[in-house]
Amino acid sequence: MTALPPTITERAASDRAKDERAERLNRLLTVVLCRVAGFLMFCLGTLYWIRIVGVHEGALWRFDLMPTAWKVAAASLAVLYPVAGVGLWMTVSWGAVIWALIVIGEALMHVGLPEIFGEADVLLTANVVGFLLLLVLRLVGWWEGRRRLSRSMRPLLDNKT
User: Fold this and answer.
1) What are the pLDDT digits (tens) for 73-101?
2) What's this model's pTM, rounded to 2 decimal places?
3) Which range of residues forms the domain containing residue 112?
4) Number of domains in the chain
5) Is the dihedral of CA 131, 133, 48, 38 positive or negative?
């Protein structure tokens, strides 16, 4: 006996199942990335607060001894990092927006003014890579949603003609 080709309904059900698996995987990867990044952002915020309070001794580790540019940067990042960490942990959109502000600010600091803030370091690279990964995951999710919507609308459009 030969197997019959799948019917349109069976193919549609199979496509829906594949779409749902891809959507679940995308959500899982996005949540994992956001939670890991959120935890690290909160830790980095704590390090900036340690720097501001002056608990650790060393160069640029006391707020009153920092140059003005570092005072502005340290105070801003001490607030932005924990806020981004909480937002990313909760996987809300404003967490990614605050992360984008951090990436832009640190890029301006280390790439635009390396004589004041030093050359770009591993922290900036990790922030950029992590943010780009989040951007790619969100774009893939958006693209898959549009594709799924157009596929679900196709039978409705075929019936009208």
Assistant:
1) 999 999 999 999 999 999 999 999 999 99
2) 0.81
3) 26-154
4) 1
5) positive
